[in-house]
Amino acid sequence: MVRTLTGIALLFGCLLASGASFQPALPARDGITVHVDGREVNTYGLVTLENGRLWGPLTPIALTMGADQVTVDEETGEILVLHGDRTLRAKVGEEVMEAEGRCFYAPGGVRLRSGDAVVPLTALEDFFSAYLGYDEELRLVDLTLSGKEMEPGEDFYDREELYWLSRIVEAEARGEPLEGKIAVANVVLTRTVDPDFPSTVKEVIFDTVGGVQFSPAYSGSIENDPGEESVLAAKLALDGEYVVRALYFSMTKFADTCWASRHCQRVATLGGHVFFA
After folding, report:
1. pTM across the whole model
2. Does the domain spanning 157-276 belong to CATH 3.40.50.2300?
């Protein structure tokens, strides 16, 4: 079954079917309410907060944010959101949503519930160039449109940063799950804003203060072309996605004897790596 809705269909579809006058639906008791520019959105009780990430039904929120069309194909899992000359693509079960060269993370995969896709609201925040706020006490999500267009990937990502970041991810985390690849990219980017480390991705990777920091930079494997998932992980990290905030990592078999284990706090184990802050 393919469901394609436009803004007009969303507003009047139920009215035409029932003949009833329009009344904004209230959120489920104790549920999370969503407002777009102050207007309440009927989210059918599908908004959840999971591990600090807000998820919600794509169709009503995207159409209220100004999408021209939302298509959810329940048979193939293909999802399309059209907004002016921008297109957001996703697929049920996949962890990456893409739009004009930009990548947005959906850990665990986009879900299908009640005939609609359930997606991270941060993806809609970026795609529609909005600002997302959440009041935990009121359980209120506030999405405010900026009136601007999303910057495409070719303009948003710094080419040199993406070049080196995707290569160190490939060299250090090839064979790791996507989450583990993002985590390695997170370490590099966290170092660029720490005063104890260089300020660019390339300089961090080739840093030798206190010893070689990333062995692939000197073994030659840094020059290997990255796989598609390593590029995706680098883009997600550059888009602000953090799965761990750490300055160091080690292979699990060396985690108990490495320098970081004696001087830093262990914060996560992802795949074959242990991360320290």
Report:
1. 0.87
2. no
